[in-house]
Structure formats: C-alpha cells, structure tokens
Amino acid sequence: MNIPPHSFEATPEQLESHIEFYVDSFISGLQSFFMVMPKGGDFVDYERFQRAYGVLRESTKNFDEFSEGQVLKAIESDPLALVVVRTILGLSPPEFGHIASLAVGVDVDQSSARRIDKRAREGKPLLLGTAPKTRQQVGALVRAAIHLIREGAPATGVEVVHRLDKIDTGAGLEGLRRVAGAGLPYEALLYERLLGRPFASHRDAVSERVGDILERAVGRGLDSRRVPFHKAGVAEKFEDMDQAPDFLVPDPRQPKVVIEAKLAEDDGTARDKVTRIQHLSELRDQRLRQGRPSFDVVACVDGRGFGIRREDVKKLLVATQGKLFSLQTVDRMIDSTALGGMQR
C-alpha cells in the first residue's frame, strides 16, 4: 500500500480512504504507563518506612505501652512514625483527619491532614518548632488513632465490612501486638494487596504528574524549536472555549493552533478526552462557517485507554484531520503541522 505510514503525513483523501489503516497504525504505537510512576519528593521507600516503624515499636515497647505520650515520643524522634500509625489504621490522610475531628473535637481539615502527612513523609518536624495549631492537630490524630486501634473493629452486619476489620486491627490492640510479634503470614499480605492494590495511595498522589508526561514532551518540543505558545491554566477560558486546550499557539488571543496533550490508561478516561478534542474541532468548524479566524486542532495522546476502542481513535483522526500524535511521534509534531511556520 503506497501511502504514508502516519496520519499526519497523509492527504485528506488518503486519510478518508485508509482510515482503518491509520487507526491500526496509531494503536500499535501506543504505550502503557501504569507499570511505572514518578516517585515525587515525598516518596517513602521500604527501608525508610522500616526505620520509622522500628522507632514506633521501640518507643511503645513492642506496642505494650501504646499510649499518647509514647507515640508522640516516637513522632518527635521520627515524624514518619505518624504515617506508620496512619498505615496501621489503613486510612488516607483526609480520612485520618476527619476521624480525628469527630473523635477528639479538634478540627483537622483535609488540607491540614495532607500538609501534616507530607511533612511527615519529608521528615520535617511535626512537634518541635511548629505552630501550636499543628501540634494540637498532631496530638488529635494520635489520640484518635490510639482509641481506634485499642477498640478494634466493631460488630457489623453481614452485608458490610468495617475498615478496621483487618488482620492487625480487627481484634484491637491485642491483635496488633500478636501480628507485630509473630509476623504477618504471606497470604495475609496478599489479601491486603487484593483489597488495597500495591502502590494505590502513591499512584493516587502522583496521578497528575503521570498525566503531565505528554504535556512536558509537547512543551519541550515547542521550546526547543522556538515556537511561541501559551500554556493554559486549569480554570482559564478563552472566548467560545468553555474548556481551554492545553496549549494555544502562538498566543491565547488569536490562536492558530490548539494542542491537547492527554494520557489515559482506561477507556472511560479516554472517551472523556476524545469528547473534549471533538468539541474543539466543532468550534474550529463553527468559526470557519462564520467566516471568523479559526485554528487547527492537534492532539498528542497516549496510554492503553486509547487503544481499547478503535472507534475512539477514528474519532480523533477525524477531529484532528489526521494531526494525531503519540509520545512516540511527538518529535514530528512541529514539522508535520502548521506549527512549523511559527518558529521565531
């Protein structure tokens, strides 16, 4: 078949006649990003967590003296010990804060809970040299945790499961001591993974950074070729665009090219991104019909989510008039679109 291998090299006639070929071509170049994640500045590796656990265990005499004073002593020695306590409970930082607010009566709002947790992960002091409010909130978190761990999981109906009904906290403090002393059976670890998914909390924390992979690649490409652009903020709106595209080139007042850079690892997210790009193409066509200055729509998408439904890729090819790129081909974006004529 004597046609260009990529849709962004094809003529409109070639794209229309061989669109199934270009769907296959694009899907074959998609990459998956769910197996790797950026660490970020507050990632806690196992050795670091192990040390903090050791500090907590030593301070509480193997959990025999699991009191507010001894836990605070551990946190003063190693702030990450607070994250160990939260992990014993199996709660997220906002959930931990909410429980403390209800149980102790000290307001630990969502932003405060996340800020305290981040400081703990970074090894920054939570008690010494901090504001009185922070110390009060840390104390509330500790008191709430001790109460929950001592009580264990309450009885529930057969149709629900309590979050504390785990191998270490289901039977209260005695269960925790038993697990801490005897070790955790491997099957119990695997069951915890089944319920919680390994790296789940970290994946949630860095999800936006994973999505930024494509945006950073597009931005670097534009910068390196001296193409002026505006990177839209989250809440920005421009004229008839109710949702701003990621990049407006050369400027937001009268863009000649708009670029969407999206990553999706599931078909639902991919479908949402496709709809967003289709909407931009409708605005492009509407402006042309009205005789107003319009723009080209360019998309750079990747992730296994876009490869699940062939129809999604077909919609993207039509919406972008073939100007569809992935991380594998993003370096060809400028030379294969109107961006090439905008270099300074």
* Percent helix range: 40-55%
Main structural class: alpha/beta
For the termini, the CA-CA separation is: 38 Å
Instruction: Give the beta-strand count.
Output: 5
Number of domains: 2
List SSEs in N-to-C order.
HHHHHHHHHHHEEEHEHE
Summed up, the helix count is 13
Describe the main β-sheet briefly.
5 strands, mixed
Strand content: 5-15%
- Tell me, rounded to a whole number, the average pLDDT: 93
Q: What's the gyration radius in Å?
A: 26 Å
Instruction: Describe the strand arrangement of the main beta sheet, using strand numbers.
Output: 1-2-3-4-5
Word description of this protein:
With 344 residues, the protein is of the alpha/beta class. The protein folds into two domains: 7-35 and 204-342, no CATH class; 46-197, no CATH class. It is built from 13 helices and five strands. It has a five-stranded mixed beta sheet. Strand 3, helix 12 (267-289) and strand 4 (296-302) form a beta-alpha-beta unit. Helix 3 runs antiparallel to helix 4. The two termini are 38 Å apart. The model has no long low-confidence stretch (mean pLDDT 93).
Show the helix and strand layout.
Elements lengths: L11 H6 L1 H10 L17 H14 L8 H10 L3 H9 L3 H12 L5 H12 L10 H20 L21 H10 L3 H11 L3 H25 L5 E2 L15 E3 L7 E7 L3 H23 L6 E7 L7 H10 L4 E2 L19
What's this entry about, in short?
The protein is α/β, with parallel strands linked by helices and 344 residues long. Helix content is 50%, strand content 6%. Helix 2 crosses helix 13, helix 3 runs antiparallel to helix 4 and helix 6 crosses helix 7.
